[in-house]
Write a structure and sequence with these properties.
With 155 residues, the chain is mostly helical. The chain is 70% helix and 11% strand. A hairpin with a 2-residue loop joins strand 2 and strand 3.
Length: 155
């Protein structure tokens, strides 16, 4: 294991946080113009091109915690974008699907948002983008391994 000083990785933490904040600010501006909040857009985008999913699957595939997800789904249901149905074989499991209105919104909003996001990425070439993915993947893996080590140390 490599020995690091706080001074060597602290700038990475700051830059990662600042990059995420800039991404979130840029992305959210457009999402709000679409009439959604970022968590609502996350749910609509995740449900798009699917037959729907239960709340656990939806929580696992989005950036939304289970506690927050219920309120997000409530507001999407109020807007007529999703429906909840009980699973016949598991009455504790709620199945979430996009309504026709939700599917229409997804078909318009998702490509529009990708076009909007392209503005921020147009400064970079394919090799840059590939490098970003590779390095961010390595960083994510480092966090995942550190989490596993901490969980093993607790047991």
């Amino acid at each position: 294991m490599k020995s690091l000083s706080q001074a060597s990785f602290l700038p990475v933490i700051h830059e990662l946080a600042r990059t995420y904040q800039a991404f979130e600010q840029f992305s959210s501006q457009h999402i709000r113009q679409l009439g959604l909040t970022p968590p609502q857009f996350d749910v609509v985008s995740t449900l798009g091109n699917s037959k729907g999913m239960n709340c656990k699957e939806l929580s696992d595939r989005t950036l939304i915690t289970k506690g927050t997800l219920t309120g997000v789904i409530d507001r999407l249901e109020d807007k007529g974008l999703v429906t909840r149905t009980m699973q016949p074989n598991d009455r504790r499991s709620v199945f979430i699907t996009l309504t026709g209105h939700g599917e229409k919104l997804f078909a318009q909003a998702f490509p529009a948002h990708l076009d909007y996001m392209k503005i921020a990425f147009r400064r970079f070439g394919e090799s840059d983008l590939s490098g970003f993915c590779q390095e961010l993947g390595r960083l994510r893996e480092g966090f995942s391994l550190a989490l596993e080590e901490q969980e093993e140390a607790v047991v």
